[in-house]
C-alpha cells in the first residue's frame, strides 16, 4: 500500500456510526434499520458483492437526515444518450461585400443575437463563419465573410480568398453595399465575380436609417443585380423584406452543403495568440479553412469545421487567442476573447496549444485553468516542435514539472502544425480524454474503493472528532462528479488525496474530477 499522503495518520473509528466496510461479504442491515429494496437502487454493472455492499450502505444511510435532493441523487437513473441522427444539409446563404459595409452587423440582426464580432472599423471579420439561422419557419445556414477586395496582398488577400470560397459553396448570395457611399469600383469588381459564379444574388443596400436614405439606395439599380433592398442592419429596418427575398432565392435543398451529423464530438483549439491554432486546424482538415498569418490575433470569430481524423469525425472549433489581461483589451479583441470562452463552454474537449519553442508563460497556465474550471476534457499539445533544439528540452521538462503539476493527468502530444508532424496522434489523445470524461463508476465498486481507502488512511482527527465517510456516489459524468456523504467536513487536502487515488485506480486520464461533500447528522430518535 502506498504511504499516506498529505499527512493522513491512522485514527480510531467510532463504533456508533456506520462506516464503509472493506470485507467482501457485507452483513445484512440490522432489524431496526429500514432496509432498501433492490428495486429502489439503480442497477449497474458490477459484481454481486458490489450490489450487496451498496444495498447495505444505503440501508445504513437511512439513519441519517436526508433531504429530497439527497434522495433524488441516490435514486437517479443512469442511461446512455443515443447519438442523434444527422440532419439534412441546409441551404447556404453567404453574406459578402467589401470591408466595413455592415456584413457582421447584418448577420447579428438576422440571427437575433450578438454572435459575430463587430467593430466600427474595416477588416474585423477575417474567416468565413457559419451560423444556423431561421426565418419564417425555414432553416438555413448563414455564412459571414471578411471584406472582399481585389488586387490586395498579405492578410487581405487571404480574407478575400475565403470570401470567394464562401460564394462557391453557397446556394445564394446576399451582397451588401453601403448605400450612403454608393457603388464603388470595388463593388463593381465584386459584381463581376458574382456574375461569373452563377449564383442567385440578393442586393442589400445597408445603412438606410430612414426614408431620406431610400433615394440613395435607388442608385444601386445601376449595378444590374435587380432591386436593391434598403436596410438598416443596425436598427433592423427593412430586414424582414430582405429575408423574404432571400428565402425566394434560396432552394429548398442545398446543392453544395454537406450532411451535418449531430454525433461528432466538439473539440476547441485554444491557447494564447500566435501559438498555431489556425495552422493546426488547416493541417488536420487538409485545406486552407481559416486565415493564417504571422500577425498575432488573426482569428477573431470561432470557426467550426467537420474533420475526419483517422476516419473518426470531430467538430473542430478554431478560436481567438486568449490574451494575458482580457479586461485591458478593447474593441474586437475583447469580444473575440468572450467568444473564445463561450466556445470552451460549448466544447466537450479542449486542445490547449503551447509554444514548445518558447518558455511557458502565466498566460498558458491561465488558459489551461479556464478549461479545467469549465469542466471540459483536456489535451495539451506542444506545438512548433520542429523549432525545438537540444538546449531547450531540459528547460521544457522543468517547466512541465513546475507549472503543470496540477494537470499531470492531462495527455500531452508533441506536434508541428507547420509540417504536420505527429498531428495524427491527436486522435488517440482525444479519444482517451473523452472516454475518461464519460466514465461512470458503479456505486458498489466506488464504495468498495472508498472503504479500502478509509481503512488504510483515515481522515485525521480535528478538534477531537473524526469525520466518517458514510456513502459515495457518482452524481454525473461530463465531467465525472462524485458526492460523498460524511458525518463531518472533509478537508480539501483529503479530497485531493481521494482524487489522486481515484485516478490511480480508475484512470480518468484527460478529464477533471469534481468531488463534493454533504455533511449529514444522525436522526434523533
TrEMBL record:
Region of interest called Disordered, as start-end residue ranges on this chain: 1-51
SUPFAM superfamilies the record matches: P-loop containing nucleoside triphosphate hydrolases
Ranges in coiled-coil conformation: none
Pfam families: KH_dom-like (PF14714), MMR_HSR1 (PF01926)
Keyword Nucleotide-binding appears in the UniProt entry: yes
Biased composition (Low complexity): 23-40
Residues annotated as domain EngA-type G: 91-254, 265-438
Binding-site residues, GTP 1: 97-104, 144-148, 206-209
Protein family per UniProt: Belongs to the TRAFAC class TrmE-Era-EngA-EngB-Septin-like GTPase superfamily. EngA (Der) GTPase family.
PANTHER family per the UniProt record, alphabetical: GTPASE DER (PTHR43834:SF6)
Protein name: GTPase Der
Natural source organism: Isoptericola cucumis
Amino acid at each position: 500500500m502506498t504511504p499516506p499522503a498529505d499527512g493522513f495518520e491512522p485514527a480510531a473509528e467510532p463504533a456508533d456510526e456506520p462506516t464503509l466496510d472493506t470485507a467482501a461479504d457485507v452483513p445484512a442491515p440490522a432489524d431496526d434499520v429500514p432496509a432498501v429494496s433492490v428495486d429502489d437502487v439503480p442497477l449497474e454493472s458490477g459484481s454481486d458483492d458490489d450490489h450487496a455492499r451498496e444495498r447495505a450502505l444505503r440501508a445504513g444511510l437511512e439513519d441519517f437526515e436526508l433531504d429530497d435532493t439527497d434522495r433524488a441523487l441516490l435514486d437517479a437513473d443512469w442511461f446512455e444518450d443515443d447519438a442523434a441522427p444527422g440532419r439534412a444539409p441546409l441551404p447556404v446563404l453567404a453574406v459578402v461585400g467589401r470591408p466595413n459595409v455592415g456584413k457582421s452587423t447584418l448577420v447579428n440582426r438576422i440571427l437575433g443575437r450578438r454572435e459575430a464580432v463587430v467593430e466600427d472599423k474595416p477588416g474585423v471579420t477575417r474567416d468565413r463563419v457559419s451560423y444556423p439561422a431561421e426565418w419564417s419557419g425555414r432553416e438555413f445556414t448563414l455564412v459571414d465573410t471578411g471584406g472582399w477586395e481585389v488586387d490586395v496582398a498579405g492578410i487581405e488577400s487571404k480574407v478575400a480568398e475565403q470570401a470567394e470560397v464562401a460564394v462557391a459553396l453557397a446556394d445564394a448570395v446576399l451582397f451588401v453595399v453601403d448605400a450612403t457611399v454608393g457603388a464603388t469600383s470595388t463593388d463593381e469588381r465584386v459584381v463581376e465575380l458574382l456574375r461569373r459564379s452563377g449564383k442567385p444574388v440578393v442586393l442589400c443596400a445597408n445603412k438606410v436609417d430612414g426614408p431620406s436614405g431610400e433615394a440613395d439606395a435607388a442608385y444601386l439599380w445601376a449595378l444590374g443585380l435587380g432591386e436593391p433592398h434598403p436596410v438598416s442592419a443596425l436598427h433592423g429596418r427593412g430586414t424582414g423584406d430582405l429575408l423574404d427575398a432571400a428565402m425566394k432565392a434560396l432552394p429548398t435543398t442545398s446543392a453544395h452543403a454537406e450532411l451535418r451529423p449531430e454525433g461528432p464530438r466538439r473539440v476547441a483549439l485554444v491557447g494564447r495568440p500566435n501559438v498555431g491554432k489556425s495552422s493546426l486546424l488547416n493541417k488536420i482538415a487538409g485545406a486552407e479553412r481559416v486565415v493564417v498569418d504571422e500577425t498575432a490575433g488573426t482569428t477573431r470569430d470561432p470557426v467550426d469545421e467537420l474533420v475526419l481524423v483517422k476516419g473518426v469525425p470531430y467538430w473542430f472549433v478554431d478560436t481567438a487567442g486568449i490574451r494575458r489581461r482580457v479586461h485591458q483589451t478593447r474593441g474586437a479583441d475583447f469580444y473575440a476573447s468572450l467568444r473564445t470562452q463561450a466556445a470552451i463552454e460549448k466544447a466537450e474537449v479542449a486542445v490547449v496549444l503551447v509554444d514548445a519553442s518558447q518558455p511557458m508563460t502565466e498566460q498558458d497556465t491561465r488558459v489551461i485553468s479556464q478549461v479545467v474550471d469549465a469542466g471540459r476534457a483536456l489535451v495539451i499539445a506542444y506545438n512548433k516542435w520542429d523549432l525545438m533544439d537540444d538546449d531547450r528540452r531540459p528547460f521544457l521538462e522543468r517547466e512541465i514539472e513546475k507549472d503543470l503539476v496540477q494537470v499531470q493527468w492531462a495527455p500531452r502530444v508533441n506536434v508541428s502544425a507547420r509540417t504536420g508532424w505527429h498531428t495524427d496522434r491527436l486522435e488517440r489523445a482525444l479519444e482517451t480524454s473523452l472516454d475518461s470524461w464519460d466514465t461512470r463508476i458503479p456505486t458498489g465498486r466506488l464504495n468498495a474503493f472508498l472503504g479500502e481507502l478509509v481503512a488504510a488512511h483515515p481522515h485525521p482527527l480535528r478538534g477531537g472528532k473524526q469525520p466518517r465517510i458514510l456513502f459515495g456516489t457518482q452524481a454525473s459524468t461530463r465531467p465525472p462528479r462524485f458526492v460523498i456523504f460524511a458525518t463531518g467536513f472533509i478537508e480539501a487536502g483529503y479530497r485531493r488525496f481521494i482524487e489522486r487515488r481515484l485516478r490511480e485506480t480508475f484512470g480518468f486520464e484527460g478529464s477533471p474530477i469534481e468531488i463534493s461533500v454533504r455533511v449529514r447528522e444522525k436522526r434523533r430518535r
